[in-house]
Design goal:
Helix 1 (16-27) packs across helix 6, helix 3 (67-79) packs parallel to helix 4 and helix 4 (103-131) packs parallel to helix 5. The longest helix has 29 residues, at 103-131. The chain is an alpha/beta fold. The model has no long low-confidence stretch (mean pLDDT 93). The protein has a single domain, classed as Rossmann fold, CATH 3.40.50.720. The protein is 44% helix and 14% strand.
């Protein structure tokens, strides 16, 4: 049975946000391609979703930090015209403060959080543009807006993803292709398992359950939001931020330095 809603390819789909997106999309009538490193977890999730929803669910085991695996997923996105949605969710945290970080781990994080998300979007975007429909959903983080509040590498990768998403929205224009950035706050997922119980130190009122986060993100998509921040009570605060940023634009590039620098 072919989905009339199109197929969604979800990365990092073996658990947490990715697995929850997969379940929600299957229940909304989408067939799926699930991508993650853990083939066993993907197969178990795929079997459950097939049984519960009747949707077609393919499994594509891949480590997106490895060039050959990434290339296989890119090729699937280019060739499989049934895929109309990309959920760019796969990502990892960094290695703490830059002063003590392992440069190899930092590079691995950048390859996954930045390089793979960019290449996957680039693989599907031309085809979606030609069709005049479809969507790319990039899972960023509120750390994109909080420089200095978290380790520098991770926040920077998420700031890149937010900036990339907004630029892609401008490129898509009124083509019919939807581009959404999702900026979760602290969410109870397995990503915290690598942080030695630090989630236990976070006040409970700051931690969102993954089901609620994904449901809010999908509701934001349905409402036409370009940037969805599930925890933000007043969407007008984001609009104020965007307006303040836009107000800088006319003065960001002039032929001469600003008078405060005292140059002749």
């Amino acid at each position: 049975m072919t989905s009339i809603n199109g197929t969604a390819l979800v990365t990092g789909a073996s658990s947490g946000i990715g697995a929850t997106y997969a379940e929600r999309l299957a229940r909304r009538g989408h067939d799926l391609v699930l991508v993650a490193r853990s083939a066993d977890k993907l197969q178990a999730l795929a079997a459950r979703l097939r049984a519960e929803t009747g949707r077609q669910v393919d499994v594509l085991s891949a480590d997106l930090g490895k060039a050959d695996d990434l290339a296989r997923v890119e090729q699937r996105l280019r060739d499989d015209k049934a895929i109309t949605i990309l959920v760019n969710n796969a990502g990892i945290v960094g290695d703490g403060p830059l002063a003590t970080a392992d440069p190899d781990k930092l590079e691995a994080m950048i390859r996954l959080n930045v390089v793979s998300t960019t290449r996957l979007a680039a693989a599907i975007f031309p085809r979606l543009l030609a069709a005049g429909s479809g969507a790319i959903i990039n899972i960023a983080s509120v750390t994109a807006l909080m420089s200095g509040a978290f380790e520098p590498g991770y926040g920077a990768t998420k700031a890149y993803l937010l900036n990339f998403t907004e630029a892609l929205q401008a490129e898509a224009g009124d083509s019919g292709v939807r581009i959404q950035a999702v900026l979760p706050g602290i969410t109870r997922t397995a990503i915290w398992d690598s942080l030695d119980g630090k989630l236990d130190l976070v006040p409970a009122e700051m931690v969102m359950e993954v089901d609620e986060m994904v449901d809010a993100a999908i509701a934001g998509f349905d409402q036409g939001e370009a940037v969805t921040i599930p925890s933000l009570p007043d969407a007008g605060d984001w609009e104020t931020y965007v307006a303040a940023r836009a107000a800088l634009a006319p003065n960001l590039s002039h032929a001469h330095a600003a008078p405060r620098y005292g140059l002749k």
